[in-house]
UniProtKB/TrEMBL annotation:
Name of protein: 2-hydroxycyclohexanecarboxyl-CoA dehydrogenase
GO molecular function: oxidoreductase activity, acting on the CH-OH group of donors, NAD or NADP as acceptor
Superkingdom field: Bacteria
Signal peptide (residue range): none
Pfam families xrefs: adh_short_C2
PANTHER family on file: 3-OXOACYL-[ACYL-CARRIER-PROTEIN] REDUCTASE (PTHR42760:SF133), SHORT-CHAIN DEHYDROGENASES/REDUCTASES FAMILY MEMBER (PTHR42760)
Calcium among keywords: no
Keyword vocabulary terms for this entry: Oxidoreductase
Organism field: Microbacterium immunditiarum
Entry EC no(s): 1.1.1.-
Length: 260
């Protein structure tokens, strides 16, 4: 979809929150939403990255009321404080994109039997519990809106459980998969759609070193002959958030170049 199509799909003047939007997939989502007329709030635990992404939105799409805040979704007080600050300016949220994650190969990989709790617990705290915190904080300002609201959780094809040495990363993503399905049933009657996008191997700042090292080997597993880009993922995320997907909820869209 072009930016013009997305604007026609109902983002003009909407309030969107994108977690992890200082870089990678989430930053591209923030760009696309801003280009389509949304007021975008960037939440990221990296203050410098959030500042840079926010400046880009203000420079490129100055008509929007774009905001930023340093938020660590693994910290309950950080999420609560950011929500309070946001609600002081914006009482409701139309679009929530839950994209913040630990995805760098080093922290997420390793044989299950050799992985200490100090390594796997942050994966669960950020990749699942953190999303729960954000959802519980923001959903009260999303339910029962006249025009409806939309949540897109960014998961991972690792939730299938087929990746060796990614047991705890996959477990956190599987929990988010299940939560997405259940929430769609719970809040659908209150005019909130909840969907997920499940990326496979995608070039981002957190994966660039690993991707560069193994790309020639990995790309052979993908029928479309290349790895994903943040734009590939953002296109799907923004579609599911838009009114073009008005009768889609509880679905997980794998954006993976045909990898099975």
């Amino acid at each position: 979809m072009s930016a013009g199509t997305r604007a026609a799909a109902g983002f003009q003047g909407t309030e969107a929150v994108v977690t992890g939007a200082g870089s990678g997939i989430a930053r591209e989502v923030a760009r696309q939403l801003a280009a389509a007329g949304a007021n975008v709030t960037i939440w990221d635990r990296d203050a410098d990255a959030a500042r840079e992404a926010h400046a880009e939105l203000l420079d490129s799409w100055p008509g929007g009321e774009h905001r930023r805040d340093m938020v660590d979704i693994a910290d309950a007080e950080s999420v609560a404080g950011a929500t309070e600050r946001l609600r002081a300016d914006v009482p409701t949220t139309d679009v929530l994109i839950n994209c913040a994650a630990i995805a760098a190969p080093g922290p997420i990989t390793g044989p299950f039997l050799d992985m200490p709790e100090s390594q796997w617990r942050p994966l669960i705290e950020v990749n699942f519990v953190g999303h729960v915190r954000v959802l519980q904080a923001l959903l009260p300002g999303m339910v029962d809106l006249e025009g409806g609201a939309s949540v897109v959780n960014v998961i991972s094809d690792s939730y299938f459980g087929q990746d060796r040495n990614l047991a705890m990363y996959g477990a956190g993503k599987a929990a988010l998969w299940s939560l997405t399905k259940t929430l769609a049933r719970e809040v659908g009657p209150r005019s909130v759609r909840v969907n997920g996008v499940s990326p496979s191997a995608t070039h981002t700042p957190s994966t660039s070193e690993w991707m560069g090292k193994y790309e020639d080997r990995i790309v052979k597993m993908y029928p479309l002959g290349r790895l994903g880009t943040p734009t590939d993922q953002a296109n799907a995320i923004v579609f599911l958030a838009s009114d073009d997907a008005a009768w889609i909820t509880g679905q997980i869209l794998s954006v993976n170049g045909g990898f099975i």
